[in-house]
Amino acid sequence: MKSLAILGPGLLGGSLALAARRAGGYRVALWARRSEAVAEIAAMGIADDVSTELRAVVAGADVVVLCVPVGAMPALAREIADVLSPATIVTDVGSVKVPIVAELAEIFRGRARFVGSHPMAGSEQTGIRAARAELFDDATCIVTPDAASDPAAVAELHAFWQGLGGRVIDATPAEHDEVVALISHLPHLVAAALVQTVLAENPRAFEFSGPGFRDTTRVAAGPPAMWAEILGTNRDAVRRSAEAMIEKLRGILTLLDRETPMTEFLTEAKTQRDRLRPLK
Amino acid sequence: MKSLAILGPGLLGGSLALAARRAGGYRVALWARRSEAVAEIAAMGIADDVSTELRAVVAGADVVVLCVPVGAMPALAREIADVLSPATIVTDVGSVKVPIVAELAEIFRGRARFVGSHPMAGSEQTGIRAARAELFDDATCIVTPDAASDPAAVAELHAFWQGLGGRVIDATPAEHDEVVALISHLPHLVAAALVQTVLAENPRAFEFSGPGFRDTTRVAAGPPAMWAEILGTNRDAVRRSAEAMIEKLRGILTLLDRETPMTEFLTEAKTQRDRLRPLK
Questions:
Q1: Fewest Cβ atoms closer than 10 Å to its Cβ: which of A2, A120, A140, B173?
Q2: C-alpha distance from A97 to closest chain B C-alpha (Å)
Q3: A155-165: buried (b, 16+ CB within 10 Å) or exposed (e) per residue?
Q4: What is the pTM of this model?
Q5: pLDDT of residue A279
Q6: Domains in chain B, ordered, with CATH?
């Protein structure tokens, strides 16, 4: 039986607890900051222990997963670092990696084995009520070792995510931030911009909309404060990707009068989109 | 028993046939241009009659629905106009209305009662194999009468779409084209641009993507030639909406360094997105 400590009772933390229970082989402890949350989660029965006592939750843990917003991670890490054993694997689920991995690796140096993670398994829903054991099934889990990472810890972390149903890809923190700006942060900005553009141009437009508009804008329903923090933390890569998007849109506008080149452009986009791994 | 003639055996035509059968009260005839398509559709058993004989299919019909690409509609309309009775209701499912409604209304003047329609019920899938009776359930069906439309025909067309499960909204052809540029044509351009931007910036990016990217880009998998025609036909409204989108994106980029205004922007977008009518 391994001991798994999950810090933060949101959608990801709660789903991790459920997925670990489903996988079996874990004793799961969940930390929440607020005592009201503890009472609610205890009543849901999704973890073996639920507590506001941070150091008690992580004491003796084999694996610790930080599931709080990226801005809250360093303070939390400092509170737990001296309770951990050097064998403990610590990871996080933050959506930005360069600043977080550098800061957390420094805090845990010599005290635990830290390697960053980012499961691409969020949702526009939030909170532990939306948690589900299947959240990581077939989800891409990006693991972000750097030069100082312990290879054995990286291998154990791979096995951890795979055991919860995930599909692991390694990337350096810098590679991660660049690629996630493209596939996650830019789509969020675009979806929010699309919602606001449409309403600014025609306040009645939503009454006419169908499933295409719904899907294209779904991610814009995600938690605003969390996303503002992510976008700000990864601002350079987000800015580059958004500027590339603007240039691409400007280019496409020149094709509106030319049906054959427009068909070719849309055919290429469709061919590429059809390459996306199908969901199971 | 009403006689319904569906011209064009694609996703929409096939789904109309299935929905009309499910609703009951219709004898359904389906026209396809190619004899191989006729054989395939006859074997599927989704219509009472399937034929390449256009004039025979529409003869005596109470309702005729044009389900071919917008560019093919005028020629088709000219072929059938003199077979119809003045009581026949003719509509279409085209995604652009100003040019089509003007041209078709002129062709059918005095020969049948034409009123345009646009059910917001497509999909990135195409072809009769993807057809399903439920396609119009709770779908917004935009009906586009103009000053010359027969009010009784408009009322009957409302009842027709409602009977197939749809939710009807009226708009003038001009209102339709402006609003659909925003909620359908712009999202298509944006999704295709997003796919191509991401791959141009990082050819490996798709390996990392999750459900958010999948949903945001879904519509880009739609049929390219059909979409190039739609975008070109509605080019002025599409251009205006895309330019508004570019301006909005530029504005958001100025918020990347300012977490509070960015949170406010994303909160407003989320609040608006949450207003979208839930799917049943």
A1: A2
A2: 14
A3: ebbbebbebbb
A4: 0.91
A5: 62
A6: 2-171 (3.40.50.720), 176-274 (1.10.3660.10)
